[in-house]
Amino acid sequence: SAVISQKPSRDICQRGTSLTIQCQVDSQVTMMFWYRQQPGQSLTLIATANQGSEATYESGFVIDKFPISRPNLTFSTLTVSNMSPEDSSIYLCSVEPGHEAFFGQGTRLTVV
Amino acid sequence: DAKTTQPTSMDCAEGRAANLPCNHSTISGNEYVYWYRQIHSQGPQYIIHGLKNNETNEMASLIITEDRKSSTLILPHATLRDTAVYYCIVSIITGGGNKLTFGTGTQLKVEL
């Protein structure tokens, strides 16, 4: 199993600013995944973060907007840059050390 | 990854079995069927997964048809706390983690 801590749990930010979300796992994992869940929608994968290499982004997501760091096997950050109200969503990190994926509780971001 | 189709919503009386269907007609031979659920304002929670045999754990049973083109998640005695969005996902298993493609899911409402 894996326990994931995400910070902050929620934030209200001004448009044009950036927010960095932290994800800490209680065990070493190869891959960490970042998802976005827009209001009333399902989860969409933003990118996969491997330690020691650049993150792999899904179609529609770019590094300039969502830079990701993965300094070690238990930690990752996702930055939402130059925010607009359309970025208001829940952002979740996930790991899958075995057959089962574990998710953090998410960061609820509101951009005003 | 293969696409899945689920009903948008279902209702179930508390104490009765909840049977949630999923169609995955384009599933390939090495893809597993996973079920996750998301209770309001929480991160998704793993329920069960299977390849071709029926599976049971402490939470639920998974019935996969012989041709693997559809499956049913069974919650044998639904409670109010089982009210959630249930996601059926098909994915291969790779070392270190799988990126999951979430569909729209089924909103299950368990009522008295």
Helical content band of chain B = under 10%
Number of helical regions of chain B: 0
| Gyration radius over CA of chain A | 13 Å
- Classify the secondary structure makeup of chain A into a structural class: mainly beta
The chain pair with the largest interface is:
A-B, 26 and 22 residues
Number of strands of chain B: 9
Mind explaining what this structure looks like?
The complex is a heterodimer of chains A (112) and B (112). Helices cover 0% and strands 51% of the residues of chain A. Chain A is mainly beta and 112 residues long. In chain A, the strands form two sheets. In chain A, strands 2, 4, 5, 6, 9, 10 and 11 form a seven-stranded mixed β-sheet that branches. Chain A has a four-stranded antiparallel β-sheet with strand order 1-3-8-7, with no helix packed on it. Chain A is globular and about 40 Å long. The model of chain A has no long low-confidence stretch (mean pLDDT 95). Chain B is globular. Chain B has a five-stranded mixed β-sheet, with no helix packed on it. In chain B, strands 2-7-6-5 form a four-stranded antiparallel β-sheet, with no helix packed on it. Chain B is an all-beta fold and 112 residues long. In chain B, strand 5 and strand 6 (61-64) form a beta hairpin.
